[in-house]
C-alpha cells in the first residue's frame, strides 16, 4: 500500500510538471514510433524554438535600451555633480571674502553702508510714489456727457 502511494506521488508530480509546461494529458503519449508523429513533434519544437528566439531577441533589445538609458543617466549625474562642486567652491570663496570683509572693516564703514542702502531705498520709494501720483494727476478728466 505504501509502495503504491510512493509510486503515485512521483507520477502526480510529473503530471503536474507537464501541465505547467503546457503538455496536455491527451498529448503526453502522442509521440509514438510513428514517423509522421515524430515529424509533427519536430515541427512543433522548431516553432517553439523560433518563438523563444524571438522573445530572447526582444528581451536583449530591451536590456540594451535600458543599458543605454542608465549610461546617459550616469553621465548626466556626473555632470551635475561637477557643476554642484564648482558652485560649492564659488559659494565657499564668496563666504570667505565676506567673512574677511566683515572682520577687517570697522563699524564706521558698516554704518555708512547701511545708511547708504536706507537712503537708496527711500529715494526709490519716493520716486515710485510721486511718479505714480504724477501719472494719475496727469490724466485729463473725462469729458462731460450730454
Give a structural overview.
This protein has helices spanning 2-20, 35-104, 107-138. It has three helices and no strands. With 146 residues, it is mainly alpha-helical.
Termini separation: 120 Å
Secondary structure: helix percent:
over 70%
The strand count comes to 0
- Total of DSSP H or I helical runs spanning 4+ residues: 3
| Overall spatial form | elongated
H/E topology pattern: HHH
Computed structural class: mainly alpha
Low-confidence runs of at least 5 consecutive residues? 1-11
Global mean pLDDT: 77
Rg, nearest Å? 43 Å
Major sheet attributes: none
The proportion of strand residues reads: under 5%
Write the layout of secondary structure elements.
Layout: H1 2-20, H2 35-104, H3 107-138
Question: What is the structure about, briefly put?
Answer:
The protein is 83% helix and 0% strand. It is mainly α and 146 residues long.
List keywords for this structure.
single chain; 146 residues; mainly alpha; 3 helices; 83% helix; elongated; disordered N terminus
Amino acid at each position: 500500500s505504501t509502495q503504491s502511494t510512493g509510486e503515485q506521488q512521483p507520477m502526480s508530480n510529473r503530471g503536474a510538471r507537464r501541465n505547467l509546461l503546457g503538455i496536455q494529458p491527451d498529448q503526453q503519449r502522442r509521440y509514438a514510433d510513428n514517423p509522421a508523429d515524430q515529424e509533427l513533434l519536430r515541427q512543433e519544437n522548431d516553432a517553439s524554438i523560433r518563438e523563444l528566439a524571438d522573445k530572447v531577441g526582444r528581451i536583449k533589445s530591451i536590456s540594451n535600451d535600458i543599458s543605454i538609458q542608465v549610461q546617459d543617466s550616469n553621465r548626466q549625474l556626473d555632470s551635475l555633480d561637477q557643476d554642484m562642486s564648482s558652485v560649492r567652491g564659488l559659494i565657499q570663496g564668496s563666504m570667505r571674502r565676506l567673512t574677511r570683509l566683515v572682520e577687517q572693516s570697522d563699524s564706521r564703514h558698516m554704518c555708512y553702508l547701511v545708511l547708504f542702502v536706507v537712503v537708496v531705498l527711500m529715494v526709490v520709494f519716493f520716486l515710485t510714489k510721486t511718479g505714480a501720483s504724477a501719472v494719475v494727476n496727469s490724466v485729463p478728466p473725462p469729458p462731460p456727457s450730454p
